[in-house]
Amino acid sequence: MTNQLLFYADAKPVSVTEHKDLSVKTGADYGFAAKVNSVPLTAAELPAAALEYAIVFAGNDDQVVPLVILGAQKEQNLYVDDDGRWRAKYIPAFVRRYPFVFAQSGDGKNLTLCIDEGFSGCNREGRGERLFDAEGSRTAYLEQVINFQRAYQVQHQRTQAFCKRLVELGLLAPVQAQLGTGGGERRVLSGLRVVNRTKLKELDAETLHGLMQRDELELIYLHLHSLANLRLIGERMPQPATGAEADTAPASEADEAAEATKH
Predict the structure, then answer these.
(1) Predicted TM-score of the model (pTM)
(2) Listed residue (146, 158, 143, 62) closest to 111, CA to CA
(3) Is 68's pLDDT higher than 60?
(4) Is residue 1 part of a domain?
(5) Domain span at residue 70?
(6) Would residue 2 count as lying in a domain?
């Protein structure tokens, strides 16, 4: 992979030649995601994610994606504690699919399953699940991984179509989100976009009907209602020693998360 993404450090194509004796031990340790302040979502995840996260959009008009906000500054994930536990009921699929990922060829026609060999659960001592059996055939576990990645890719394509429609209809507007803690510290998140309610109300009946028929109007309102969860970020922020204000704009990580969906 020419461009590593977010917490993937050393993603390599899965092959029987390189990984015949490789096992993968996964668990409840999400420490690998402790330094990302946003991750992409697929459209299918919005109903569950909207209950616990603030969902926004990021990227340029050619590659807009929905994201969940996880932190108020760079390399901060307030949903992962010091023991690597995820502090929410719903865990985004982008996180759950790790250490595997599909890499897309330059022409976009072929997908290759990759694994992050830097993942702490990768081993050759038989701990966890084997990728290949003694004869070099895929194990049931590897087939399950591939099916999950394929399902994710289908939802990713649906999400791309949804975001493209939002851009074409001119519904997305740039915003800055101001967060505050009880201790008086303030953070500013920039590089984000949300659906403009006024422009949404100005759509004609036929366009609104089309959005409703595709269940995209529901997705829009799930996104808008989820913005109330920005207060949860402020509540999770560590209390400062003083009441001094500090502004930060982790737009670069939001852009990186948007870029990650190209793979």
Answers:
(1) 0.86
(2) 146
(3) yes
(4) no
(5) 11-260
(6) no
